[in-house]
Amino acid sequence: MATYDRIGTTYSGTRRPDPRIAARIHAALGDAATVINVGAGTGSYEPPHTVLAVEPSAVMIAQRPAGSAPSLQASAESIPLADNSADAVMAVLTVHHWSDLEAGVGELLRIARRRVVVFTWDQTVYRKFWLLDEYLPEVAAFTGTRSVPVDRLTALLGGAPHRDRPDPA
Fold first, then answer.
1. Residue 151: what pLDDT?
2. Where do the domains of the chain lie, and which CATH numbers do they carry?
3. Which pTM value belongs to this model?
């Protein structure tokens, strides 16, 4: 992933996990005893029972904290692991970077025994945020070119349930 090899050099220092998002992801993983994190980056949202991080960028892998899950440099579209390799597979804010969404989702489904958890944004909701709509329309337009429609992702995941937005805290 050339983008993160170029722009990700300070990622671990500038991108901090949000505890509300972490709680949602961990709840969605449920009772999975083993987890593979695909598009793992620096591992911000990995639960302790993550057994492997799959990440294409060497720059991101180098920033993973000591003691985190071992990493495998590979892309989501071609993961060199056996079928049913872990109870759950997670993919956090990564699907918009994949060159072949269908292949990537197929790999998630192939290596997960029981559950696939994907965290992304819904461009139709994101675009309505007043700051983007009124002050930063160029940002909204750019992210719109990269976003994956939630309905398309849901269909590829076999009609998996999804939540449009979290409950108010």
1. 84
2. 2-120 (3.40.50.150), 122-158 (no CATH)
3. 0.80
